[in-house]
Amino acid sequence: MTLTTKQYTRLKEQFEALADPVKAIKMSAYMKNHFAFYGIPAPERRKQYAAIIKDAKKAKHIDWELLDLAWKQPQREWHYFVCDYLIRLKALVTIDDLPKLDHFIRTQQWWDSIDQLDEIYGELVSRYPELKQLMLTFSKEPYFWIRRLAINHQSSFKENTDTHLLSQIIIANLRSQEFFINKAIGWALRDYSKTNPLWVSDFIVK
User: Which burial class, exposed, middle or buried, applies to 77 when counting CB atoms under 10 A from its CB (0-12, 13-18, 19+)?
Assistant: First the structure.
């Protein structure tokens, strides 16, 4: 049995042991019933895979096979595991991993996961400025969750925000009728206003 299989099997057993059908129904309803849940609260869920992430960080190795296996599962807790894993190991993600990441951002998506995965893309853009063009491409994608990722990927950049890029991405989505896109634009401007309120004010006026 490989390490990947052992970790997956053990985590599955832990998740199943902690499953709470009553909480699962409520958690699924909160996500508009798009996903099934085990019904495990976030703090307890994270405890179950803390050692997996710790070992991966120590080994400086991302187990993409494990992440792919987890992502295929119907319960949302698995998808949260993938997001938490990648965020904790984001320094190890490289531009060569984009094809692997692309699968995650185009499947099993809702606001709760895309708003975590955008942090990974933000990290990559900060290290590989040439990926700014990819964000512009993303900003015009038919799949609106990809557009939301593009809008929010600089949310933690503060004074390092590329305002020209931000404005281009927002302008490309200003006529959207999609609630989650308009909400993302509002959040992006609100977040950056904490760093540069004058720029945000000028942008809104324009």
Answer: buried
